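User: For a benchmark we're assembling, each entry needs the component sequences followed by a predicted structure for the full assembly. Here are entry 17's components. Please fill in the structure.
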Amino acid sequence: MIIALAGGVGGAKLVHGLAQTLPPERLLAVVNTGDDFTHLGLPVCPDLDTVMYTLAGLANPETGWGIAGESWRFMDSLGRLGGETWFRLGDQDLATHVRRKGLLGAGLSLSAATRELASALGVRHRLVPATDDPLRTRVTTDAGEIDFQDYFVRQQCRPTLRALRFEGAAQARPSPAFAEALADPALEAVVICPSNPYLSIDPVLAIGGVREALTAIDVPVIAVSPIVGGQAIKGPAAKIMRELGREPSALEVARHYRGLVDGLVIDTADAGDANAIAALGMTPHVTGTVMKSDADRASLASEVLALAARLRQTAAQGSSTRRRTA
Amino acid sequence: MIIALAGGVGGAKLVHGLAQTLPPERLLAVVNTGDDFTHLGLPVCPDLDTVMYTLAGLANPETGWGIAGESWRFMDSLGRLGGETWFRLGDQDLATHVRRKGLLGAGLSLSAATRELASALGVRHRLVPATDDPLRTRVTTDAGEIDFQDYFVRQQCRPTLRALRFEGAAQARPSPAFAEALADPALEAVVICPSNPYLSIDPVLAIGGVREALTAIDVPVIAVSPIVGGQAIKGPAAKIMRELGREPSALEVARHYRGLVDGLVIDTADAGDANAIAALGMTPHVTGTVMKSDADRASLASEVLALAARLRQTAAQGSSTRRRTA
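Assistant: Structure for entry 17:
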């Protein structure tokens, strides 16, 4: 069984690749909730929804988020009435948040509500929030600390980012399915999808006990670099790395995950980083990581799984490659 | 200045007729809130919205309620997700309730929130809820007491109605603009629009002090019968009258409003009731009351205003027609 940690668009693509490759019982997608917020009185979970819509085959292929063929009559009307329009909710997407509110209001956990929603959309693979507890990413900018969606959507990541804080993370506990999978003897590997390490993966790692559990487990942890040729495929990862004083590169991603991951999948454009990555104590694997089609997703997923199998075998032969620092 | 008491579709049409006839400062539309309820976590005010959309020129001409050219993608998606679909909220209409929730959440009264919404939609005439306080119509049926919208929409008025109760009405107070208008020396008449007397007007009359104020004021109170030829133009008024043991007729409407109104406008189809209505102590006025076009609305409004002016004049000459029983 494979745990895949994912954030938004890039993560969702690899989760989809894994779902094409693995039967439902062999995959658990664990999704960042640091971006979640209450908007217009509704509980909005951008990363969970991106992964859910992607697995349901509903995702908008142009944006990566939202629903294909979405309409905006609600939003247009709300704007006309003087309501907030900076965070755009499509007519169909809105139903997800309204239904989630109803389910949470009826006492369901976010995990259970997500299961209801995903199941209704025909998603067969398991999809859970990293935690059912409150966890909110807060961004320190030159102009002070602001909410994540204020930074990410309202201000379009324009403010210079100085630090990130994951409010509630230390008190939060992994969601039941995530905790169970981490302790499951059937666990074969943990895949850190090519999501933003700072915005999408760090909040998951900050949840009480997660980093420790990932460091302690004796199955390979494989990450896929979201940085390709010094650029992020999508989103502000490269800009954020620069603002945090780091060169946007696959090697820097390796440094960020040092002590946690056993293997790092990097793009052919970054093959030059392979030796330096190996020197950090992890196994680099060079391949094409840009996922333009469903086949690209499945192909990258297969390579990730093959790398995990290889590292598992090496470990079984007694010569573990792990040199984790934790 | 004219106060118009209105409920849903029929009332909205006459309010629109009055708005075509009177400048904004001379009309105050006071709308029933007994039908209001919270649905999907949103504050829904069906009668206020029907009057607002009608005055804004947005109303769906087929249904009388909702917005012309409405779309239903939110509702269809919500149904797919297992959400409640018995009360249908269109994509555009939904924005009204979401915006209202935001305004109420920011501390505005329902009156102030309604002013914001109506103003954004370009409504120039004043439109207020009858009360800003909680007031909920509850329906006693053969199967027990149920919420109004459960009776009206979910069960499509099928249960036999035995009684109505206006929860909170005695503790409620008229909205500030309504209270002010009732005491305004510039008040010329109160018009009770052709709305359902039991479901739409009685909740307004049940608000603390309203019936007393209407009985005490020295300007004419004119009602328009919603029953034409023994039938309701729209809605369950005739069915309800039968279930309450009353013959659906203009005369029965007159009996219902006895002691409260000075003049009753009835349809030509009901001209035969005129003498009996006069015998109850109110002035009947026979005309075409079915409003099929904007011109019909304006024409009926003009007749209502003319009747009010005539009764005012009669009163000024010292020979009041009023024989109120209160």
